[in-house]
Amino acid sequence: MAAARSALASAGRAANEAVSLVVFMLLDVVEVLLCVVYKVADYMLEGAWRPCYCSSSSSSGAAAASGKIVVSERGGSKVVSMLSSTKLHLEDISDTLYTRPSVLAGAASATRSSPPPSSRRGATTVTVHSAIVQMLRGKIGVDGEGGKQHKPYPSPRWSDCHCANCNPADAGRLFVHVEAPPDGAATEEDVLFIHGFISSSGFWTERVLPNVSRGARARRRLFAVDLLGFGRSPKPADSLYTLREHVEMIERSVIERHGVKSFHIVAHSLGSILALALAVKYPAAVRSLTLVAPPYFPVPRGEVGTQYVLRTVAPRRVWPAIAFGASVACWYEHLSRTVSIVLCKHHRLWELAFRVFTFYRVRTYLMDGFFCHTHIASWHTLHNIICGSAGKIDKCLEIVRDQLTCDVTVYHGRDDELLPVQCSYAVKSKIPRARVKVIDGKDHVTIVVKRQKELAMELEEIWNRQR
């Protein structure tokens, strides 16, 4: 019987690989066609087209210097200096944005023993993809030819939603849901909730926050943010949505604006990466770290970290379904833009249809978070945070282990098919004092939304231990 099950499983894996090969070869063709379609559409509707990442072109330091954008190396760190005197570190940008081989090209490169040029150590050439240079020129309003004015890209773009919720009037701060003691009493500490990818603050405010006790609320302010590019926060068309940009917006919108001095962090999925970055930046202020389904994949020796995480998160398989969705989102720039147009640009229609279909009996906070973003935001955040964090998380975890004394608790659903439970065990291997709690029968989402009362009670216990 066991032999039969093993044979059946092997046959299933073989069938999955064969079907996946055909499906993703077809998607490679569709992606090329969509590239042409969107270039024409952007030109007709916006008067110009933005270079896409499927192009293999890149600019050297000398070429990028035109248009008052200078690529240079300082102290071993590659930076892009712009007219506004701000700096964009190239290490913040994941090479998976523009290095995503097709199915056939990936199979061919796997047979070669030598690593690709981008992964060879000791390379001194400083390059930056032309699409990134073009976005920076649009950001500072300067073109590359003689320093003349560059027409900024419209925000929102024609393919984005134009409603007021998706385009807040205050473009300099995130949307922050704040719950403070009703009597205005001084609080001892605060709690910052950070959501995951294509989600919003509603992930916390609709389920977890209502279950926090009065006693806990009397001593703390509760903050839940919509990350840059998601929910009711700004969605700039010229942002690269790097880790640095996300963290700086949280600082500006929560820590500085509300005078936060001592705080706990509760983060889900992608938000766990931002939580670790904040903890490293504010080591004396962070009282506890609670990470739910953190996307941590230790990179094997000899692997290019960003490419390894890309292949792990998005294995280009049609089954399970969540792996197929992740693969489309990660590998296909124009196909994922099409999905965003269908779902996000028309999110109000989808939300209304869902309410009518369910006779207004189901709250749609998860849909609000899923639909309210732009392709520019989701595409760059996915690559620059999830894939681009390879190696960076290791350093953050080491600092939390060696230099911070805060409590670290990790939750994971045993049935999580998107991020396996091994991710949380890997966190514990880096931070031995971390407590890992694996919940049976829960997946990537239900680890929170189906056990909100239990989670709220457990969070209060964590906060009280640090008093």
TrEMBL record:
Domain (AB hydrolase-1) spans 191-447
InterPro entries per record: AB_hydrolase_1, AB_hydrolase_fold
* Entry-linked PANTHER family: HYDROLASE, LYSOPHOSPHOLIPASE BODYGUARD 3-RELATED
Query: What name does this protein carry?
Result: AB hydrolase-1 domain-containing protein
Natural source organism: Oryza brachyantha
Taxonomic lineage of this organism? Eukaryota, Viridiplantae, Streptophyta, Embryophyta, Tracheophyta
